[in-house]
């Protein structure tokens, strides 16, 4: 499988602009906190590495990935940011609950970004098991949080270039 061969966080194919002009929010789900904490660390550190000021990064948590949409909406309704990064980890269980959460979160984050015309980044792992999640939160397949942060910078930069 293609994924097995590469880090999903390899951004050598593109140049990430400076993050210094932009304000960011990071909304992190507390479910699977060991995983989402690593995603958050990856996202935060990449933003700062790319020049974002710590005072320009708003960080909040929500109970679970299902609440990421509400958390992003609260941020975008109350704070002026150039992008919001939504981080979560949904791990499949024994019932269809996984499918409902993943679908709701994907659609919700899409819609909240469109509602406010602000990039809302889907940094949510949707895995079959804990091992796959660990591999994508700083393991052999990179860090989804880093990817989400890089995407946030690129989208904020795109929007500013079009204004
Ligand atoms: N099972 C997982 C959940 N479940 C909780 C939901 O996200 C939500 O908080 C609850 O349904 C109340 O609305 N959340 C995750 O982020 N990851 C999971 O694996
Ligand atoms: C994704 C989930 O909500 C999952 O953890 C729930 O597990 P189960 O389907 O066994 O109730």
Automatic annotation (TrEMBL):
<feature type="binding site">
    <location>
        <begin position="94"/>
        <end position="95"/>
    </location>
    <ligand>
        <name>(2S)-2-hydroxy-3-oxobutyl phosphate</name>
    </ligand>
</feature>
<feature type="binding site">
    <location>
        <position position="31"/>
    </location>
    <ligand>
        <name>5-amino-6-(D-ribitylamino)uracil</name>
    </ligand>
</feature>
<dbReference type="GO" id="GO:0005829">
    <property type="term" value="C:cytosol"/>
</dbReference>
<keyword id="KW-0808">Transferase</keyword>
<comment type="function">
    <text>Catalyzes the formation of 6,7-dimethyl-8-ribityllumazine by condensation of 5-amino-6-(D-ribitylamino)uracil with 3,4-dihydroxy-2-butanone 4-phosphate. This is the penultimate step in the biosynthesis of riboflavin.</text>
</comment>
<keyword id="KW-0686">Riboflavin biosynthesis</keyword>
<dbReference type="InterPro" id="IPR034964">
    <property type="entry name" value="LS"/>
</dbReference>
<comment type="pathway">
    <text>Cofactor biosynthesis; riboflavin biosynthesis; riboflavin from 2-hydroxy-3-oxobutyl phosphate and 5-amino-6-(D-ribitylamino)uracil: step 1/2.</text>
</comment>
<feature type="binding site">
    <location>
        <begin position="65"/>
        <end position="67"/>
    </location>
    <ligand>
        <name>5-amino-6-(D-ribitylamino)uracil</name>
    </ligand>
</feature>
<feature type="binding site">
    <location>
        <begin position="89"/>
        <end position="91"/>
    </location>
    <ligand>
        <name>5-amino-6-(D-ribitylamino)uracil</name>
    </ligand>
</feature>
<feature type="binding site">
    <location>
        <position position="122"/>
    </location>
    <ligand>
        <name>5-amino-6-(D-ribitylamino)uracil</name>
    </ligand>
</feature>
<dbReference type="Pfam" id="PF00885">
    <property type="entry name" value="DMRL_synthase"/>
</dbReference>
<dbReference type="GO" id="GO:0000906">
    <property type="term" value="F:6,7-dimethyl-8-ribityllumazine synthase activity"/>
</dbReference>
<comment type="similarity">
    <text>Belongs to the DMRL synthase family.</text>
</comment>
<dbReference type="GO" id="GO:0009349">
    <property type="term" value="C:riboflavin synthase complex"/>
</dbReference>
<dbReference type="GO" id="GO:0009231">
    <property type="term" value="P:riboflavin biosynthetic process"/>
</dbReference>
<dbReference type="InterPro" id="IPR036467">
    <property type="entry name" value="LS/RS_sf"/>
</dbReference>
<protein>
    <recommendedName>
        <fullName>6,7-dimethyl-8-ribityllumazine synthase</fullName>
        <ecNumber>2.5.1.78</ecNumber>
    </recommendedName>
</protein>
<feature type="binding site">
    <location>
        <position position="136"/>
    </location>
    <ligand>
        <name>(2S)-2-hydroxy-3-oxobutyl phosphate</name>
    </ligand>
</feature>
<feature type="active site" description="Proton donor">
    <location>
        <position position="97"/>
    </location>
</feature>
<dbReference type="InterPro" id="IPR002180">
    <property type="entry name" value="LS/RS"/>
</dbReference>
């Amino acid at each position: 499988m293609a994924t097995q061969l590469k880090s999903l966080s390899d951004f050598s194919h593109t140049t990430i602009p400076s993050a210094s002009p932009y304000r960011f929010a990071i909304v992190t789900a507390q479910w699977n906190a060991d995983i989402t904490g690593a995603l958050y660390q990856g996202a935060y550190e990449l933003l700062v590495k790319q020049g974002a000021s710590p005072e320009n990064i708003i960080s909040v948590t929500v109970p679970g990935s299902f609440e990421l949409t509400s958390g992003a909406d609260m941020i975008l309704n109350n704070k002026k940011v150039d992008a919001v990064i939504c981080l979560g980890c949904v791990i499949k269980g024994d019932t269809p609950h996984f499918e409902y959460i993943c679908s709701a979160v994907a659609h919700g984050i899409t819609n909240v970004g469109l509602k406010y015309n602000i990039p809302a980044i889907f940094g949510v792992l949707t895995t079959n098991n804990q091992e796959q999640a660990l591999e994508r939160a700083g393991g052999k397949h990179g860090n989804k949080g880093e990817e989400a942060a890089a995407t946030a910078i690129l989208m904020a930069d795109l929007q500013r270039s079009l204004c």
